[in-house]
Write a structure and sequence with these properties.
The complex is a heterodimer.
Chain A (H helix, E strand, L loop, with lengths): L4 H10 L6 H18 L23 E2 L9 H6 L5 E3 L9 E6 L4
Antiparallel strand pairs in A: 2-3
Chain B lengths: L2 E3 L4 E13 L36 E2 H13 L7 E2 L2 E4 L9 E4 L9 E6 L5 E13 L3 E3 L6 E5 L6 E7 L6 H18 L11 E10 L9 E6 L2 H20 L8 E5 L4 E4 L12 E2 L6 E2 L2 H8 L6 H12 L3 H8 L2 H11 L4 H19 L10 H12 L5 H14 L3 H8 L7 H14 L1 H9 L4 H11 L6 H13 L1
Parallel strand pairs in B: 13-14
Antiparallel strand pairs in B: 1-2, 2-11, 2-12, 4-17, 5-6, 5-16, 7-8, 8-11, 9-10, 12-13, 14-15
Helix pairs in contact in B: 2-3, 5-6, 7-9, 9-10, 12-14, 12-15, 14-15
The chains are: A alpha+beta, B alpha+beta.
């Protein structure tokens, strides 16, 4: 499978990556090369093989339905990239909002 | 099947519903943060829900159990092995940049739900699948002129997405389906069905076609949050599609929003290429595997569901399908009715509950739980009537007194002296008084025996409604026909 420029541009947009126009063609070439390398795996006959979802032979660990977390608004909001507004600035665990540039639907 | 008449002939609507039902659990699907509604913003968020680097999801056992329970209630196939996938898209209330959902291998497969239509008929609607997924956070756009505020309290709360087959053919059927689904999850205790608080939301897929013809292109109406709006949205959208096609246009597959204020659907311009979700298995989670024994254990704890209960009411109590449907739609109502009917005449109990009692609840905007009249007291009212302590007319007054005071009807009967008079001496005296005062009417009666009712009325009136009507009838006949 080889990727063209448009496909690369679309994937970049979906991933919110900014790729300058002049880099699209070289990137398409590199990605196509990686695909070609991975496609060698198609030579292996996997007709009756279940897809492997993990290498470890364990089952999904589960948690009891207990409240053990939350109430840490200060920590949660500390790294808010666009900043935060707090209900009570003197007690940041009392709650607040992440703020982002206005998103108009 | 109901057809819509267009300018060029008849059209059939084809509908499929995707319902998001919030799972009843104390903690979230993959974290230990609480799920309670209405807390201060971001106080119910763990670092997992905020998608801090290095945080790993660990699944909540109860959410898995609730999904299986719901699947069993929908007569559906339970998949002993299912997979969690990442559904990738960018939005400010989705901190992970993906939603953990289930794509190819959901926890629940095909099932069926029986719906009750307004004309008393039933229809079976197929269920395509049910899967578990995370809810997103909430965006507030009206708090600041240039900023959007984000609250992640809902982020990571467990949702069940229940997808129907495109089996519905009218807005009424879609409404009946949603009502039945809500009833089932509430009986099961897996979702509270509260559409106002958003614990149940619905996306509606609408297309139109010539009756029995090839399927048309569908539009998806997102996030409709009441049964009434679902009906409105479908009616509007079907009309719109027919008009577009009949005027020579084509329907574009798209997502639309329902504006409940205007009662119309509008194309949502945003997210044009957001349809490419690039699903892939979440490497943070192993396949979800459980045994058939586990499923059977859950099955053994299922309550009697609304359809089974309805059929039992028809069969054992002799109720009409309509009354049985009304009484079983809500679990609380059914339990109330059964408490009233226990050991009594079930039909009389049903008449009282669906009649005066429901009217009283409606008048007071009350529910069965907040009713001023308890089931025990309502039952006693029936007993007082059945054993002849009070007459039917007094029962009506007593009901009003019970509504006002919340008291035991037996106590009210004592306090207010409402006991029915069966003492023949007292009734004979009342009859004599009426006859003596109305010689003209007595003469008229001889010519016109239908006047009899008038005398009964007068005697009842003069005894304040407390005379036993049967005794009055007998004695009056004797005197008048003598």
């Amino acid at each position: 499978m080889s990727l063209d420029k448009d496909t690369v541009a679309r994937i970049a947009r979906l991933a919110r990556l900014k790729v300058p126009d002049e880099e699209l063609a070289p990137l398409a070439g590199e990605l196509s090369g990686i695909f070609a390398w991975i496609e060698q795996l198609n030579e292996v006959d996997t007709k009756n093989v279940e897809p492997m979802s993990s290498v470890s032979d364990v089952t999904l660990p589960m948690r009891a339905d207990k409240v053990t977390d939350g109430g840490v608004a200060a920590k949660v909001l500390a790294n808010a990239p666009g900043g935060a507004v707090y209900i009570d600035p003197s007690d940041r665990n009392a709650g607040g909002f992440f703020t982002v540039p206005k998103v108009v639907e | 099947m109901s057809l819509i008449k267009g300018e060029t002939g008849e059209w059939e609507i084809v509908l499929g519903l995707e319902v998001h039902a919030q799972v009843i659990s104390d903690a979230k699907l993959f974290s230990g943060a609480p799920t309670t509604f209405g807390a201060d913003p971001n106080t119910q968020v763990s670092l997992v829900d905020a998608a801090m680097p290095g945080m790993l999801p660990v699944i909540n056992e109860r959410c898995v159990e609730q999904a299986i329970r719901t699947g069993l209630g929908l007569n559906a196939k339970i998949n002993l092995r299912s997979i969690f996938d990442r559904k990738n898209y960018f939005y400010q209330d989705l901190p992970q940049g993906y939603q953990i959902s289930q794509y190819k291998d959901p926890i629940v497969g095909e099932g069926a739900v029986e719906i009750d239509l307004p004309d008393g008929k039933t229809r079976t609607i197929g269920i395509e699948r049910l899967h578990l997924e995370q809810d997103a956070g909430k965006s507030l756009h009206d708090q600041h002129p240039s900023q959007t505020y984000v609250d992640l309290n809902r982020s990571g709360v467990a949702l069940m997405e229940i997808v129907s087959k495109p089996d519905m053919r009218s807005a009424d059927e879609a409404a009946a389906y949603l009502a039945k689904l809500r009833s089932i999850v509430r009986y099961l205790g897996t979702c509270d069905g509260n559409m106002d608080e958003g614990s149940m939301r619905c996306d509606v897929n609408v297309s139109v076609r010539r009756p029995g013809g090839e399927l048309g292109t569908r539009c998806e109406i997102k996030n409709v949050n009441s049964i009434r709006f679902v009906k409105q949205a479908i009616e509007y959208e079907a009309r719109r599609q027919i008009e577009v096609i009949e005027s020579g246009g084509t329907i574009k597959q798209e997502t639309r929003n329902f504006d409940s204020g205007r009662g119309e659907t509008r194309s949502s311009r945003s997210k044009e290429d957001a349809q490419d979700y690039r699903y892939f298995p979440d490497p943070d989670l192993l396949p979800l595997i459980f045994t058939q024994e586990y499923v059977d254990q859950i099955r053994a704890t299922l309550p009697e569901l609304p359809d089974a209960r309805k059929n039992r009411y028809i069969k054992d109590y002799g109720l009409s399908p309509y009354d049985a449907g009304v009484l079983t739609a809500e679990k609380e109502t059914a339990e109330f009715f059964e408490a009233v009917a226990k050991g009594r005449d079930a039909k009389q109990a049903a008449n009282l509950v669906t009649g005066d009692f429901f009217a009283m609840l409606k008048r007071r905007s009350a529910t069965v739980e907040t009713s001023p009249i308890s089931a025990a007291n309502l039952g006693k009212l029936l007993d007082l009537q059945a054993d002849g302590t009070i007459s039917g007319r007094i029962a009506k007054d007593l009901f009003v007194a019970m509504e006002e005071t919340g008291k035991d009807p037996a106590v009210l009967v004592e306090e207010r002296g409402l006991k029915q008079v069966t003492d023949t001496g007292a009734i004979e005296a009342a009859i004599k008084a009426v006859i003596d005062a109305n010689p003209g009417q007595v003469a008229a009666y001889k010519a016109k025996p239908t006047m009899f009712g008038w005398f009964v009325g007068q005697v009842m009136k003069s005894t304040g409604g407390k005379a036993n009507p049967k005794v009055v009838n007998e004695l009056l006949k004797k005197v008048l026909d003598a």
